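Give me structure tokens for this 326-residue protein.
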Amino acid sequence: MHDSREKVVIITGGSSGIGRCTARLFASHGWKVGIIARGLPAMQATAQDVRDQGGCAAIVEADVTDTAALEAAADSIISQLGPVDVWINCAGTGIYGRFDDVRENEFQRVTDVTYHGTVNGTRIALRHMRPRGQGCIVNVCSAIAFHGVPLLSSYAGAKGAVRSFTQAIRGELRLEKSHVRICSVFPAAMNTPFFSHALSHMGWPARPAKPIYKPEVAAEGIWLAARSNHSELFITGTTELFSLATRFMPGVIGWCVSQLGMERQLTRDHRAIELCEPTLFHPSDRVRGGRWPFNHQARGWSIQVWLLGLRQAICMRIRKMLRMTH
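Here you go.
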């Protein structure tokens, strides 16, 4: 990523939440942004965000579970913007409810979008990046990949698979001595429309478990991951502590997670109820922003991300100074 042309990023699931915030952030740094999602009105809103930042946007409707449609969408964006430098797999969906209450086709759909969608995106990105010998793929995972949470069995399984899949592909790229990189990022609970889009069998809409962060924090972590050599990046200190605790105190964490129960994962907030619109099988006709009604409880900062950004800035400064001396 050292040539002089403008860089290109493609984001699946870029029509709301983390994906939309990430598109806006890349555009603010002068990148061209390609958006792939199902809902045209929401994608148009994201494209406007990109243009408001002075960036160039291309949008194409496609379901990440449809490999042919996804590949055609990628080809269309590349023909408009140029070769892809960074591909971000951000599309995901979930269902809240007891395993026995989740229908087989619902469970399959969550797996197809959240896991197979990431696999499909990675395969297509590699087809474009391998011949050029450069590029970066960022797979948006979740803290839930370290320990499953009750009432989220389909989503937990899919995110656990995303992490293992990414590790396997990273190993293959190393065997090839390829300069293409692949990274997983692990956000904590984010205040995004994911919860209004998620199907709930709990009788009430779902809500993020505390501590909650604003999606701009996740976007900043993704930006850092795309420009660094991290193989796995914890977007918040909460996620990193959770990862360590599951490794060294699995029994304690298992008990703590089980205490979440149903009440702590649902909300009776009237705003959340009004916004509830499951999009498991069909895209939303509404245009959603990056956030959900719990913004007043969400943190807009992360010490972890700040330290990672500081470290990256120092390293880049040192490299620049070394190049100047030579």
